[in-house]
Amino acid sequence: MDPIRGSVIKGVKWTTLGTIGVAICSLLRLSILARFLDKSDFGLMALTLFILGIINLFMDMGLTSAIFHKQNISKNEYSSLYWINLIFGILVFGIIFFVSPYIASFYNEPLLAELIIIMALAVLAAALGGQFKTIEHKNLNFRIIALVELTSAIISLGIAVILAIYQYGIYALIFSALFQYAVPNLFFWLRGLFLNPVRFHFKLSEALPFLKIGIYEVGSQFVNYFNRDLDIIVIGKLFSTELLGGYSLAKQLVFKPAQIINPIITKIANPLLAKFQTDIHVLKRNYLKLINIISSLNFFVYLGIIIFAPIIVTILYGSKYESIVALVRILSLYMYLRSLGNPIGSLVIATGRTNLSFYWNLFSMAIMAIFVFLGSLVSIQAVAWAVTLGFLFLFVPNWWFLVRRMTGASLTEFTKAIVPKLYFDEIKRTISKKYNG
């Protein structure tokens, strides 16, 4: 068997196990804590995680994508990148420490400042171990990554339950999330020190080629992050934390399937597509296949959520959250459309065209801001419809600006790739091949 294909197959198995396990733990945590905490607690947590997400975008300055893209990296280059990342992580934590009171004041939630500072400790852990984890990922060591992330998620779930039972309120959410974010990075830091120790070496000239790619990637992710959570920002400011909490729970529910399906595929696709960066025909073929697989899986999953939303909400959150059923259905449409754009990140990494991604995200954020603003003038449900219609509006421009330029795929090819398939023929051929073999 081809070594790359063998690594991919193993990677799919371990990534599937880890991703599904982590998602189940996360869903169980939400389901259990929904019975102990108030909606306002989930509203505060949504704002805290939004701020932490912004911090994480700047953590490695886009160097993760640059490391995936460049195929041969020396130990000196890795060392230069590590020291830049570590120093920058410490600076980011210091900035967050000082600006958190102003963020809390903006949302008129004094407790938010303390929660942000606690969660920002994860930044220091990421600065220490993030690069080591990226190296494991690039080397297709998905087994160790999956086991560490799954173990952290299970322990995190236990911490959340224990703290909730002892009535620690929102801190049950905060400390369990902190543990899940920080521990894997600390583990890979310690592992890296033994297996691939960093040298006391630094040259800015060695890091500049990576930073050139990374700066655009950070800008792109930063804009895309605001684009993704514009609804959270607006609802947090214009509506109560209780309403935000209900909306956040609905959004987290519909995010779970995509958080299981998409990472399983894209974690493999990131290093794999990068290996095909010199052959645009192979790159296009694999990208379109990737799109079709994601579309097919997500379509039927989200169709099921739309149909059985009342049952799902009652089982996961309890009868007091019946009011979010409509939001779950609307946001399921939104999440399906959004999932179709997820593989573009793997394509950007493969081609190194982070500049295109940055400019596209600026444009799409401007469009989405208009849709979200108009929706916020009506109701929270209108905001959910607004983000859904916004993504539908951006479908053709997304193909024209990104997919066409990086792969040469026509609109017809791109549209056909999105049409869901059941893959019955492929399954039958696989079974037949094994049986005959």
Structure notes:
- The protein has 437 residues and is an all-alpha fold.
- Helix content is 85%, strand content 0%.
- It contains 19 helices and no strands.
- Helix 4 runs antiparallel to helix 5.
- The C terminus is likely disordered.
H and E string: HHHHHHHHHHHHHHHHHHH
Largest sheet entry: none
- The separation of the N and C termini measures 15 Å
Strand content: under 5%
The geometry reads as globular
Low-confidence stretches: 424-428, 430-435
Write the layout of secondary structure elements.
Blueprint: H1 3-33, H2 39-59, H3 63-69, H4 75-107, H5 111-119, H6 121-138, H7 142-165, H8 170-195, H9 204-228, H10 230-238, H11 241-274, H12 280-317, H13 325-341, H14 344-351, H15 354-376, H16 380-393, H17 395-407, H18 411-418, H19 424-436
Helix pairs in contact: 1-7, 1-11, 2-5, 2-9, 2-11, 3-6, 3-9, 4-5, 4-6, 4-9, 6-8, 7-8, 9-15, 10-15, 11-12, 11-13, 11-14, 12-13, 12-18, 13-16, 15-16
Subcellular location: Cell membrane
Transmembrane segments: 12-32, 44-68, 80-99, 111-132, 144-166, 172-194, 290-315, 358-377, 383-403
Keywords: Cell membrane, Membrane, Transmembrane, Transmembrane helix
Can you summarize this structure?
Its main location: membrane. The chain is mainly alpha-helical. The protein contains 19 helices and no strands.
List keywords for this structure.
globular, mainly alpha, 437 residues, single chain
